[in-house]
């Protein structure tokens, strides 16, 4: 039987090491894995179904704001995700909650608070700092629209937002160009977008207000 596992997805090696230290001190019964990009996160989740919690940074290579969170939630709806970010603006925290995270830990949090938050989430609770930001109906609507997409359609959407042509998306995903065309049509229909540009603007809405500091 595979050991229960925690996955830390963050592109900063020093911070990753600090989180892993907290996990090994507080939760020695769990094995730990690391990922430094959206791509390696996806691979790790495919190869390790025993992962019980993902600790996810918002600004990794290959991710656009909340896109990695939405992708994990879409592909593994039972897997809890906790955001760990240096951007702890109240609206960022509120959006993380609305897009399906079960917790949000500011990177400035002391090790003791970080450990307590992770233990609370593993026990089935959620953990968020106090928030002043109001729930956003626009974010709720965006999350609902994106939830209609299959995981593969969501990947197609992100490639669309990067300006890739169908032929390029097909090469990236290992699909036939006709298959990509079908996916693009479905994505635009489900999102009620009339053009690829509209879809790209919608994806831009996933970015944090200050993506560089997230």
Describe the structure.
This protein starts with a strand and ends in a 10-residue tail after the last helix. Helix content is 50%, strand content 12%. The chain is built from ten helices and five strands, in the order E-H-E-H-E-H-E-H-E-H-H-H-H-H-H. The chain folds into two domains: 5-122, Rossmann fold, CATH 3.40.50; 137-212, Orthogonal Bundle (Arc Repressor Mutant, subunit A), CATH 1.10.10.10. The chain has helices spanning 13-26, 38-47, 67-75, 90-98, 111-122, 137-146, 151-161, 166-173, 177-190, 196-204, and strands at 5-9, 31-35, 51-56, 81-85, 103-106.
Can you describe this structure in just a few lines?
By secondary structure, the protein is α/β, with parallel strands linked by helices.
Q: What would CATH call the architecture of the largest domain?
A: 3-Layer(aba) Sandwich
CATH C-level name of the largest domain:
Alpha Beta
Spell out the helices and strands N to C: EHEHEHEHEHHHHHH
SS content category: alpha/beta
* Overall geometric form: globular
The largest β sheet comes out as: 5 strands, parallel
CATH topology of the largest domain: Rossmann fold
- In the sheet with the most strands, the strands line up as 2-1-3-4-5
Helix content: 40-55%
Q: Supply the number of helical segments.
A: 10
Q: What is the CATH superfamily of the largest domain?
A: Response regulator
